[in-house]
Recover the amino acids of this structure.
């Protein structure tokens, strides 16, 4: 394994390790095929970069690849502690800045628009570029929808639990934390992680998670705990997302907020263009609103706009010594 170079950023505290070079992939494959190839044939690169000692259990990565979609400027494959996700809003926000600052796209005065091919489809991002410098980023989601509303699942820990399942580029189970006796501001994080594990297991046991258009998108990615509020009137609503293998998002979660707004739209708890604010476990904020109606197979859905701010915190060149017994990566918890 040769040197792997990265640029590290965070969005609302959620890390993003942008992998710029060092991971070889077959050129002839589509983006989804490259994602599948990594998962089945070259997963050592994910473990090398996401796991200790170079990463940690909550590290998140984005591998830049050429786009095969005709409208996209470049493609990306997302990775984390468990595998490879289909959409990541905090990453898109960071990648918007990165693309402008590195010349992947040419900056325009005022606002620069680019399209990133994600595994769930092309996502258009708009980067504030006053005087050609990158700033706040917003993106327009893929068509999103509510898969299940007011659905009960049976858990050993909490008995029957009522929740919604929404898709925002990935599927999430969404519920008010208070409905199972938890508090999104006071309950210890480890207790939230444990609760999410119970709920994820129950959903996977009882509900078929299928995307109507792409088989690779059909799986439950995470659980979102809310404070039961809507985020209207500039009064932020907490959005704590626990995804993959107990990984806690430090940002409000772009794809998760998208899924939440899709559920809210299905329940008529928001209107087209109505602004909402969502707060993460670190106190960072994303703004969100539905832009238009959409249709995904048999589901009525919406397109959503999410905006936030990303920041740089370093660059790296990672290497492997042949005599290092821990070079492949490890996790302690």
């Amino acid at each position: 394994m040769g040197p792997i170079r990265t640029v590290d950023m965070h969005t609302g505290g959620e890390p993003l390790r942008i992998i710029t070079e060092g991971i070889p992939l077959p050129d002839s494959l589509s983006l989804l095929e490259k994602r599948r190839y990594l998962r089945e044939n070259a997963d050592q690169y994910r473990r090398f970069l996401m796991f200790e000692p170079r990463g940690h259990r909550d590290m998140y990565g984005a591998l830049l690849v050429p786009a095969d979609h005709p409208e996209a400027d470049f493609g990306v494959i997302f990775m984390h502690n468990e595998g490879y996700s289909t959409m990541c809003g905090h990453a898109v926000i960071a990648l918007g800045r990165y693309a402008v600052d590195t010349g992947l796209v040419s900056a325009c005065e005022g606002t620069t628009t680019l399209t990133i091919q994600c595994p769930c489809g092309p996502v258009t991002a708009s980067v504030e570029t006053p005087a050609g410098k990158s700033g706040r980023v917003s993106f327009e989601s893929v068509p999103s929808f509510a898969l299940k509303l007011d659905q009960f699942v049976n858990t050993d820990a909490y008995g029957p639990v009522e929740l919604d399942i929404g898709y925002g580029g990935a599927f999430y189970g969404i519920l008010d934390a208070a409905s199972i006796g938890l508090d999104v501001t006071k309950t210890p994080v480890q207790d939230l992680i444990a609760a999410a594990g119970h709920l994820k297991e129950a959903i996977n046991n009882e509900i078929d998670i299928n995307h109507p258009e792409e088989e690779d998108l059909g799986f439950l990615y995470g659980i979102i705990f809310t404070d039961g509020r809507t985020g209207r009137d500039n009064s932020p609503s907490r959005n704590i997302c626990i995804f993959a293998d107990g990984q806690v998002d430090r940002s409000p979660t772009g794809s998760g907020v998208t899924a939440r707004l899709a559920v809210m739209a299905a329940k008529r708890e928001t209107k087209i263009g109505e602004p909402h604010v969502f707060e993460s476990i670190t106190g960072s904020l994303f703004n969100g609103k539905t832009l238009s109606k959409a249709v995904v197979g048999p589901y009525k859905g919406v397109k959503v706009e999410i905006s936030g701010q990303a920041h740089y915190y370093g660059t790296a060149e990672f290497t492997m010594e042949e005599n290092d017994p821990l070079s492949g990566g490890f996790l302690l918890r």
Q: What stands out?
A: The chain is about 20% helix and 40% strand. The first strand starts at residue 4 and ends at 11. Residues 78 and 84 are 6 Å apart (CA to CA). The helical segments are 31-41, 44-50, 89-102, 189-206, 254-266.
